[in-house]
Structures are given as structure tokens and as C-alpha cells.
Amino acid sequence: MNSDMIVNLSTQAIHLMLWLSMPTLLAALVIGVLIALIQAVTQIQEMTLTFVPKIFGVFIVAALTLPWMMERLISFTIQMFNMIPMLVS
Question: Is a pLDDT exceeding 80 seen at residue 1?
């Protein structure tokens, strides 16, 4: 196992982490901006108002994208297990 393989595996793992976290983070961002816009228009400045819609939105997006996330994670895990003989020698 050389340093190029380690860098490549680390890069793949980081890319996978970013792709898997992107849907939930984008949902939280969009919901947060919409709630902030509503708060600015109505002049309701309640700090805790954004938490409940964000939690529900992130939960719904995570539930909808869970099959895709599991497919990507299983594929990456199988790839790592298949590389074990190459990494040991």
C-alpha cells in the first residue's frame, strides 16, 4: 500500500461523505432561508421558530434519500472489502 492509494481512498471517502450529507444540508439551508424570509416580512423574531421546520424537513429528506444513501454506502463498503487483499500484500 503506497501513499497514492491512501490519498485516493481518503479522497473517495471524503467525496462520499459530502455527497451523502448534501441533501439534508441543502434542505436545512433552504428551509432556514425561507423561515428567515418569513420572519423578516412578518417581523416575528423568534429564534426557536426555525428549529421545528428544519427538523421535519431534514427528517423527510433523509427518509426519502435513504435508499440512495444506503446504495452508495454499500457500494463503497464492498469496494473496500474487495481491496483488502491488495492492501495487505
Answer: no
